[in-house]
Write a structure and sequence with these properties.
single chain; alpha/beta; 8 strands; 37% strand
Length: 150
């Protein structure tokens, strides 16, 4: 699993012009799922994300997690994170999981994040044409790959 994690002061996802998910301060996460991903990737990545110390403390040092900042999460599925651009000019998405594998993992990831965060999260809709808006706070952007744990 690849996650692009952005600390935001606000973020919104719209589908067909209607707001599907919206948060204030927190994390907007783009999640790419590949065929080889499993429950171990979900557990590791969700715990790591919720405990990342990327929010400012009282001295304005990035020392607090989203738990301490009482922030929210907006999770968006994005298969294009697994694009291969090595050959030619058209990206290949062969590494991205097909919906029959990706959707159940995406849904498990939502539940895992909610468990770790201790509250519900906002989401987009798997496979939908989404319009995502955000104000990146910092800017802070972290890229994590569950295949690079060590």
């Amino acid at each position: 699993m690849i996650a692009v994690i952005q600390r935001v002061s606000e973020s919104t996802v719209k589908i067909n012009g209607r707001i599907k998910g919206q948060i204030g301060e927190g994390l907007m996460i783009l999640l790419g799922i590949e065929e080889a991903d499993n429950n171990e990737d979900i557990d590791w990545l969700s715990k790591k994300i919720v405990n990342l110390r990327i929010f400012p403390d009282e001295n304005m040092v990035m020392n607090n997690s989203i738990l301490e900042a009482s922030g929210d999460i907006l999770l968006i599925s994005q298969f294009t994170l697994h694009a291969s651009t090595k050959k030619g000019n058209r990206p290949s998405y062969i590494k991205a999981a097909k919906p029959d594998i990706a959707i159940p993992l995406y849904e498990k990831f939502i539940l895992s994040l909610e468990k770790e965060l201790g509250k519900s999260i906002q989401t987009g809709e798997f496979g939908a044409d989404m319009k995502v808006a955000l104000i990146n706070d910092g800017p802070v952007t972290i890229i994590m790959d569950s295949k690079n744990k060590v």
